[in-house]
Amino acid sequence: MTAHRKDTARPAEPILALDDLGVVFTTESAQVPAVRGVSLEVRPGETLALVGESGSGKSTVALAAMGLLPGNARVTGRAAVAGTDIVGADEAGLSRLRGRTVSMVFQEPATALDPLTRIGKQITEVIRNHHDVSAREAAARAVDLLRRVGIPEPERRAAAYPFQLSGGQRQRVVIAMAIANDPALLIADEPTTALDVTVQAEILDLLRRLAAETGTGVLLVTHNMGVVADFADRVAVMYQGRLVESGTVEDVLLRPTHDYTRRLLAAVPRLEVALPDDGAAANALTKPVPGTRTTEPPREKGRTPAAQEGTPVLALDDVSVVFGRGRRAVRALDGVSFLVRPGETLGLVGESGSGKSTAARVALGLITPNAGTVSLFGTDLAHSRARARRRLRAGIGVVLQDPVASLDARMTVGECVAEPLRVHRRELSARDRRGLVEDVLERVRLPRALARRAPGELSGGQRQRVSLARALVLEPRLLVADEPTSALDVSVQESVLEVITELQDELGFACLFVSHDLAVVQHFARRVAVLRGGRIEEQGPTGETLLHPETDYTRRLLAAAPVPDPVVQRARRTERLAALAAGRTEGGA
Amino acid sequence: MSTPSFLIRRVLQALAVVVIVTIVVFGLLHALPGGPARGILGPQATAQQIARFNHEQGLDKPLPVQYLYYLNQLLHGDLGTSYTLNAPVSRLIEERLPKTLVLTVLSALIGLLLAIPLGMWQAVRRNRPVDYVITTLSFIAYSTPVYFLGLILVLVFSQVLPWFPSQAPQGDSLADVFSEPRALVLPVVAGAASMVAVFSRYMRAATLENLSEDYVRTARAGGARSRAVLRKHVFRNSLTPVVAMLGYYVPVLFGGALVVEQLFNYPGMGLLFWSAAQASDYPVLLGCVLVIALATVVGTLLADIVQRVIDPRVKAGRA
User: Fold this and answer.
1) Using a CB-CB distance cutoff of 8 angstroms, which residues of chain A are in contact with residue B319?
2) Are residues A367 and A497 in the same domain?
3) Does the pLDDT value for residue A38 go beyond 70?
4) How many angstroms separate the CA atoms of A293 and A117, rounded?
5) Where exactly are the structural domains of chain B?
6) Which fold has domain B96-279?
7) Which residue among A71, A195, A277, B181 has the highest number of C-beta atoms inside a 10 angstrom radius?
8) How far apart are CA A543 and CA A346, in angstroms?
């Protein structure tokens, strides 16, 4: 396999060359062009990041380079992998290339592996697709690969099924499959999007190390500019199926020339970080890119101190939640206490499984805690009658993560927004209700006429604003927002967050804002609570807690979040790896 | 859940189901108008004779008392004695059940062996002529009543083309059934037809769903050909929902046997049940229903166990 490596490692020859690539999808109603005239090259040992928002065609390019597009795609132009054109190749030719010369890492580690086949066997399959080796030898190589991608106890783990592994470990297995035959080109399609930041950092480190060891060229498809800054040598920006700008990572991220690239970068929320050793880098980071919003959220200025006082709208005191019973019991929340004061925004941050969504559900009264008290607007939820609880709940609005699933597809937008009115304000006439619905749609900057449309006809950002309108139609005193923008593109995220901020100034509701995105919370929340494994790690004003954290965990969390500046990110990475190495030697000593 | 505790729980559940089934059936049978006496003693019987028969059989006692008597008998392994055939119900079932099992198990096996590859083939060739043709045939096979299909089979393959006998071999032992294997062909085909139709649909749907899963793309990205992906990954994943359905299909199989045995004069449980129903032979009817209920419960239990073997997530309580 090393011979194979040397063949392709001549620096001059690109391992992937796309020339005027075009992809058109035939749907029932129309011909939809997804990729138009894309030309790019990836050379051995370099990483090209293909960036853009959803629908820009970046994943289609990646699949086209693998010959994995669905049957309704028509491909024109040329896509050559190690000199072989993929576009006209038959199945036999493609399967000889796939997994050997070019391989792929996918976005969703939860579904990318066959749930019924042991992971070792899935890796050996890739090896034996291309090499005539015995099952035993392939199994030994699979164990080696698992060790290389950092799976502990690889001999034992090879016999595990995918469901027995964590998301990060599954992604390592997918990577092991991808590098099993030392490919010359690795295509990674959003390889870390489904993972927590700390796991993301580990996976990126792993990919970088593997690429450096073998001189593999990498095509990295991502929407995350922090990941780009962390990993890429060159960047190509896609917009509506076309390549609008490409260049070195420093050029594109720091000195973008195309208007779209500038807008895209401006919309990325930037994590403000304190770098004690490197003040210059920190300054470079906080220096606003043209069009970036200032680091101080504007709404903080108008807020009077009086708005912060009075009875907290929400208070959790020593709340514990246990799911399941006996040996399988999971402590989702363990002695959690926090307050949300009138008009203020509290950010709840943490990794998956930290209990942040459970905390939001407790606040909504959807989960009754096993211990502790929850007070809503000064009333203890456990000691109030059902009817009173219902009245209290009318004072909370909620926006959830998934813009598709959170609106009933069989109702019109108007009916969706009117539903809380039907429940809590039954005295209203149909006409008054309609009037209120149209008013609130206008408030979230949607046209009144949208009330008669179906949610399915709306874009993701519009749908999230409909959810927001539904949450605000009862003029709540508390808005609970659980990852409200995580499924949205950055530019859309920015506009949705702006709407929430403006309305909060206008209507004065408090907000419990749950997010895994530290940069968003830093810009949006006044105070922040960091959750880890069901406990509050620390809480305090956002400016202090996220700039000068007191606990190691928060420091690690912050260090793992990549910032969209290649120069700063490189310094941060070096520092993080140094800290990790130091921690390891300390732990070993 | 560990396997022993899973089994204990499921067996207890199964027992509860069987008891409930006997209560329901007992109640329904005794709610029927007429009662067995008139049927057995004939239209000439006097009211006195009927009253005496009812008294002898305990039929004049309150229903719950009758049920408790029955249950007590049952616990002693006694299913009662047939009113009309003058033989213990347990012996009747002992004689007939193996023959019905031969018929249903053969039908089910042949049905599945055809349905599974057919469904996968359809999924791979979805929306092509082959798929449409098989789909049409499936719907015809599924919507044709078994007795009608059986009659056509007899007409074509027994009368017009004298290939197979239209009547099953008679006799008390299992060996008698196998003495003329050709006579089994038409009953088995009649029983298998709807099985093929139903399960090829399930298999087609399951395969289609799995073909669009991410892991298929991962396998192809690793250099596997389409056929290998089908064989190594899609097949097993598609089989799990089909196996689950199989357990619930047991009563349908027995229901089919009822008609098929009537039609081909095949001396199994179905025929026994048929004649007992016509004669209001309560002990026989109850015995048959009990056996079918047991078979259903055992069928679903087996299906669950097979699923635990195929899919490790079931055992871990993750699916």
Assistant:
1) 115, 163
2) yes
3) yes
4) 49
5) 96-279
6) MetI-like fold (1.10.3720)
7) A195
8) 12
Contact (CB<8Å) B218/A163: no
Please judge whether B223 and A91 are an interchain contact, meaning their C-beta atoms are less than 8 angstroms apart.
Answer: no
A11 pLDDT band, cuts 50/70/90, is: low
Structure-token match 């076309």, residue found: A242
Distances (CA, A) of B160 to A517, A543, B185, B255: 77, 92, 16, 28
- Residue B33 pLDDT: 65
Across the interface, of B225, B233, B310, the residue whose CB is closest to A114 is B233
Number of CB atoms found within 10 A of residue A537's CB: 20
> Would you say residue A320 lies in a domain?
yes
Q: What residues contact residue A8 under an 8 Å CB cut-off, 6+ apart?
A: A15, A44, A82, A101, A184
The count of domains in chain A is 2
CA distance B83 to B37: 9
> Within this chain, do residues A204 and A247 fall inside the same structural domain, yes or no?
yes
Interior angle at CA A183, CA A114 and CA A205, nearest 5: 80
Do residues A447 and A331 share a domain? yes
User: Does A121 map to a domain?
Assistant: no
Token pair, residue A295, equals 């680091």
Which residues of chain A are within 8 Å of residue B311 when distances are taken between CB atoms? 115-116
How do residues B263-287 score in pLDDT, each as one tens digit? 888 888 888 888 888 887 888 888 8
| CATH at A49 | 3.40.50.300
Neighbours of A404 (CB within 10 A): 12
Nearest to B173 by CA among B108, B102, B105, B107: B102
Total beta-carbon pairs less than 8 A apart between chain A and chain B: 86
Query: What is the spatial distance between Cα A193 and Cα B92, in angstroms, rounded to a whole number?
Result: 66
**Is A321 in the same domain as A412?**
yes
DSSP A267: H
User: Using a CB-CB distance cutoff of 8 angstroms, which residues of chain A are in contact with residue B221?
Assistant: 66, 68, 98-99, 103-104, 106, 178
| A97, A111, A174 member nearest B213 (Cβ) | A111
**Which of A226, A246, A267 corresponds to the end of one domain?**
A267
Q: What domain range is A39 assigned to?
A: 2-107+185-267
Angle between helices A279-286 and A566-588 (to 10 degrees): 130
Closest CA to B221 of A366, A130, A536: A130
Tell me if A160 is assigned to some domain. no
Q: Is A489 a domain residue?
A: yes
**Full-model pTM:** 0.81
Residues contacting B308, CB < 8 A, separation 6+ = B3, B6, B314, B315
